[in-house]
Amino acid sequence: MGKHRRVPPFKKRHLTRVAVGMSVALTGGTAAAPSALADTGTGNPLNAPAADVPVTAWAPVEASATGATASKTPLEAVAEGLPPVSAEQLLAIAEQQIGITENSAGGGTKFHSWYMSSPRVWETIARDGGNVRAYANAPWCDMFVSWVGEQAGIRPTVGWDAYTVTHAEWFRNNGHWGAQAEPGAVVFFDWKGGDSLYGIDHVGFVKKDNGDGTITTIEGNTGNGNVEQRVRPKSQVVGYGYPVYNG
């Protein structure tokens, strides 16, 4: 069923990992130096960049007990002030990548290059170990999903990671996880048909629910090493993460 790997490129470590990040409102300029935070399962919806990285592209708003965002989930609060993007617009960006293929080593795509040059790579290295170069030929289905979210301008609610299990946990921990196939949802697969997040093998975007027990998806790092549109059985779906869209 393809060559996907569900483990991070470096270590099989779920319970004791340490993530680098912050959970503060950012309004532009550069971020303050992050601190090392034990991953207790509470999630970090901002996934803030490393020190001295410009963050003018997004300005999340913190929820408060008296403010307008008080009734919103963490991801919805983060989405305040972002450019309006619909699920259809994000899927159009994903579709434009169909046909992109990896090299003979299993890497070399623009999705690898983007992730390796992003501040997120240092956060995932701090969590999983390894080095930047090791991502050059790493499994890239989640890099593709993360890249599309970045291009759509809604990275804070699509999330960004190279490890599908952690990405799914992030959606779940922030209250944006469920079992309904919706256009633009991030879909996580277990080829064995399990329902545990720790069994996740692969990730992509839902294009539509076909109404016959299958979904049409757009995915990177398919078994053919490409970005492709696929039809997948829902029996292989562990769950769906829901970014925040306009409309």
Number of helices: 7
Evaluate the radius of gyration.
17 Å
Query: Can you name the CATH architecture?
Result: Alpha-Beta Complex
The shape is globular
Average of pLDDT: 77
The domain tally reads 1
Low-confidence stretches: 11-70
Major beta sheet, specifics?
Answer: 6 strands, antiparallel
Could you give me the name of the CATH homologous superfamily? endopeptidase domain like (from Nostoc punctiforme)
CATH class: Alpha Beta
Strand content: 15-25%
Compute the number of strand runs. Answer: 8
Helix/strand-derived category reads: alpha+beta
Q: What is the helix content?
A: 10-25%
List the secondary-structure elements in sequence, H or E: EEHHHHHHHEEEEEE
N-to-C terminal Cα separation, in Å?
35 Å
Strand order of the largest sheet: 3-8-4-5-6-7
What multimeric state do the chains show?
single chain
CATH topology: endopeptidase fold (from Nostoc punctiforme)
